[in-house]
Amino acid sequence: MRAFALVAWSAVLLATTARAQVPSFPANFKTRTISTRGAQIFVRVGGQGPAVVLLHGYGETGDIWAPLAARLARGHTVIVPDLRGMGLSSHPAGGYDKKTQAGDVAAVLDTLKIDKVDLVTHDIGNMVGYAFAAGQPGRVTKFALLDAPVPGVGPWDEILKNPLLWHFRFGGPDMERLVKGRERIYLDRFWNEFSADPKRFDEASRRHYARLYALPGAMHSGFEQFKAFDQDAIDNKAFVAKGMLPMPVLAVGGEASFGPMTAVVMRAAASNVQEVVIPHSGHWLMEENPTATVSTIVDFLD
For residues 261 and 126, what is the distance between their CA atoms, to the nearest angstrom? Predict the structure, then answer.
């Protein structure tokens, strides 16, 4: 009964958010839901050519990638999942450590019969992407990470001291009660404080993502993503001890956010790191400066 209710709610949500004018994927992109170990992953697939996987972060879904997906689909097969517990993927009780979610990515690719991929990731997507690339380096040809740290890698302990990152430790049943019905208020804090100019994260996008994060179980799943960071740090330190990432890595930071720190983090985990800082942008690169962000990623992948 709960599954039926979620499907029905999702159908209404899609119809409602379609009017919100969030950038849409090209008409030739198809959607499907793929079963992984413990989750149902909602995936968009389009284009033709070498494969590229786009992984989103917290406060958004795979929908952020629509402009980039449209550009890449001219010469790539583009795979855009919603991470476990986010968007239109399922909200299982567990599995929010990033090694498990890397398994979700692997299962999606196996189902699609795709072996090697380029990776483009943002925020928590960076963490899932790193676990995938470190665990299966032979499957990743290039790896672009956008504006976020990776637990346990490089100056992680110093990054945790930043007071803006208090939400890394925010969670539990009382916190869920506090934000229930107030998802937009909670999310506005991220969209405002982590932007160079909050107006660039437009109202249509805010409404769209707030509705998705108000789905049953969505906020709980989001808190679980952060709760898993301690385990992620343990897992990632083990990955680093085994060796550096061998593929070319593009470390992108927003000028008013992580800036060069993304590259500082990745130089502790990869041997071939290129650094780019996107001007006139905070954390939300695809919303704040999509032209420069898309151009940077396309140049790296091509």
Answer: 13
